[in-house]
Write a structure and sequence with these properties.
Order of helices and strands: HHHHHHHHHHHHHHHHHHHH
Radius of gyration: 20 Å
Mean pLDDT: 89
Largest sheet: none
Number of strands: 0
Distance between the termini: 19 Å
Structural class: mainly alpha
Length: 365
């Protein structure tokens, strides 16, 4: 795990400088670029590390020279992802080349997407990276998430071009369709409605309805049917821990308590808050019966958590208060890491790369 923690430390140091630097400072852009390169190196040059290693390696290695044949031979996989694999195969059969390009696309969209929506992209990225480490290896969905996050400003502006990005993301993971709701979320929703929705979601979560919905999704198409079967048989399909429930509940209370104070400092706060509420609703509805659906389906919504957690920095006046709060978030990122990888800890710890810890053998699945 030390490689991840070295990266976290560098990002945290940059986040401290970011607090004092002017938004137009070229130093900020330089730090963002360094973070971008380091993230690509750590994630793109991993080997036998992360989820879904074997199936995605097999897909990459077994593609036919003909794109049409490759698509026909992989009926349960989205066309966009197959085209990406096929394109890389045209000039290299090295899976590490593919992973580096994948990481380059993903982190470009995430980092520059963050830079467009918050003054504190480094600290937000640190929280995002640590909280999503456990899905590292979910190649298709991560590309879909990146596309959606990069287009987030279009959803904020209610620009209909946003739906083009949703369609593009669906070419990599069909579940991206649920992010269409982002277009409607740039509004202030009353606390009564939010809490009422949370209560209803909790009640529904303990009814047979979630299983019925999951079964319905399985009948929509061959791709969705395959996903349902995989998710239903996943190791992660178990009741989520109380810790996850407490964490999300406390965060919601915190975000609601500071909303009135933050709205005048951070104009898009309600947009990101509403997305987080959607994440909580998904958790409550499906968390007691379909854990893997929560992990995957809520990923599109959880990406805003870092933006919300760093938002109080907008209203703090004193720099020592800002630094102290940043230090608290840095400590929180380590909690996120261990919660994130807890289901598949053996796939992440220790880190293995093509030039680091390369003698270590890890059974992958």
């Amino acid at each position: 795990m030390e490689i991840y923690f070295y990266l976290f430390f560098v990002i945290f140091i940059f986040s401290l400088f970011e607090i004092t630097l002017d938004e137009r400072s070229p130093v900020r852009k330089g730090m963002l670029f360094i973070t971008y390169i380091l993230s690509i190196l750590v994630v793109g040059m991993r080997w036998r590390t992360g989820t879904d290693w074997e199936p995605y390696l097999t897909t990459f290695s077994s593609l036919d020279d003909s794109l049409l044949v490759s698509i026909r031979n992989n009926p349960g996989m989205e066309i966009g992802y197959l085209i990406f694999n096929w394109f890389v195969n045209l000039f290299s059969s090295n899976y590490s080349v593919f992973l580096v390009l994948h990481a380059a696309i993903y982190y470009y969209c995430i980092l520059w997407g963050l830079a467009k929506v918050t003054k504190f992209p480094h600290l937000s990225f640190l929280l995002l990276f640590s909280d999503t480490l456990g899905v590292l290896g979910s190649n298709r969905q991560l590309l879909a998430v990146a596309i959606i996050f990069y287009a987030m400003t279009l959803a904020i502006e209610r620009n209909k071009k946003y739906f083009l990005y949703v369609l593009m993301a669906m070419w990599f993971h069909v579940t991206a369709v649920i992010t269409s709701i982002f277009y409607l979320l740039n509004k202030k929703i009353s606390i009564k409605i939010i809490l009422g929705s949370v209560l209803i979601a909790a009640i529904v979560g303990y009814s047979p309805l979630p299983q019925m919905i999951f079964g319905f999704l399985g009948g929509m198409s061959e791709i969705s049917s395959g996903k349902v079967e995989v998710y239903a048989n996943s190791k992660a399909s178990a009741t989520l821990g109380l810790l996850g429930m407490v964490r999300r509940g406390l965060f919601l209370v915190f975000f609601l308590l500071i909303r009135e104070s933050l709205e005048k400092h951070f104009g898009n706060y309600n947009f990101f808050l509403n997305i987080f509420v959607c994440s909580l609703l998904i958790y409550l509805i499906f968390g007691s019966s379909l854990t893997i659906l929560v992990n995957r389906g809520s990923l599109y919504f959880n990406i805003v958590q870092g933006v919300l957690l760093t938002a109080p920095l907008y209203m703090f006046k004193r720099y020592d208060t800002k630094y102290l709060y940043a230090l608290i978030l840095f400590a929180l990122s380590f909690v996120f890491v261990y919660q994130s990888i807890s289901t598949y800890a053996d796939l992440f710890d220790p880190y293995q790369g093509i030039w680091y810890n390369d003698n270590f053998y890890r059974p992958v699945y």
